[in-house]
Design a protein that fits this description.
Strand order of the largest sheet: 5-4-3-10-11-13-12
Structural class: alpha/beta
Order of helices and strands: HEEHHEHEHEEEEEHEHEHEE
Radius of gyration: 18 Å
Strand content: 25-35%
CATH class: Alpha Beta
Low-confidence stretches: 1-6
Number of helices: 8
Number of strands: 13
Largest sheet: 7 strands, mixed
Mean pLDDT: 89
Number of domains: 1
CATH topology: Rossmann fold
């Protein structure tokens, strides 16, 4: 009997979920853990501490690298009514939900969706994509990566992107290990107008958080807070220009 009930519930499971935050934003995502968890993290746990971090910051342009389905961008747009945001998300299915969430919240004039990866150099890169809008989809950056489903995606160099579409006062980075190539290949000049950075960092066989900290310090951005995850060498860091 229990097996039959469980099977029936499984059949009735909705393919996608819709969330509405008390503050107003609404979000759609596939009904999969890797897709819905980032929405909880942004709106329930305030994982980027967006309001507090930007309390005194006049942000007019923002860059969201690893935008996923748009939780951070939609939250930021609600907090900063004048901000315009460029969102970069290479996964085709995830980018489709990102576009839907921009439209659902009436933000088409303020948020631009780009279906590209952001990396140290422009080109075509291998990308791990499970097709279910997982927040763990990522550009494959190290030869030790063992991936079941690999596709190729177009990548834009960070320096070129900032030169063409910037400047940006705020940059958010959450790209599952791609942060090292992106940041460490960048020129200090590309960060000249940036006053705030929030970045998630991940385990790497070749790099550590100290590499990111040193490189951004040379560009004038200092760590003001850091929160380590229970997962080894993973966490979130907040940088601010002195």
């Amino acid at each position: 009997m229990l097996a039959a009930i469980a099977a029936g519930r499984a059949l009735q499971r909705p393919a996608e979920l819709r969330f509405e935050a008390r503050s107003g934003p609404r979000m759609l995502c596939p009904n999969q853990p890797g897709a819905r968890v980032p929405i909880y993290e942004v709106f329930a746990e305030d994982c980027y501490r967006t309001a507090a971090f930007l309390a005194d910051a006049p942000v007019s342009r923002a860059l969201d690298i690893g935008a996923h389905v748009g939780a951070f961008a939609v939250q930021l747009a609600a907090l900063k009514p004048g901000v315009r945001i460029d969102c970069f998300e290479p996964s085709e299915r995830t980018a489709s939900y990102l576009r839907r969430n921009v439209e659902l919240n009436g933000l088409g004039a303020r948020i631009v969706v780009h279906q590209f990866a952001v990396a140290g150099h422009s080109g075509v890169l291998p990308f791990s994509d499970n097709g279910m809008s997982s927040c763990q989809n990522h550009v494959i950056t190290e030869p030790t990566d063992a991936e079941a489903a690999v596709t190729m995606v177009t990548a834009r160099a960070f320096d070129d992107l900032v030169s063409e579409r910037g400047p940006y006062e705020l940059i958010k980075i959450d790209c599952e290990g791609g942060e090292y190539d992106l940041v460490l290949s960048s020129a200090a000049e590309s960060w000249a107008s940036t006053t705030h950075v929030v970045a998630e960092y991940h385990p790497s066989a070749e790099h550590s958080f100290a590499d990111l900290e040193t490189h951004l310090a040379r560009a004038g951005l200092r760590v003001v807070d850091r929160e380590d995850s229970p997962i080894d060498r993973q966490g979130t860091a907040w940088f601010r220009r002195a």
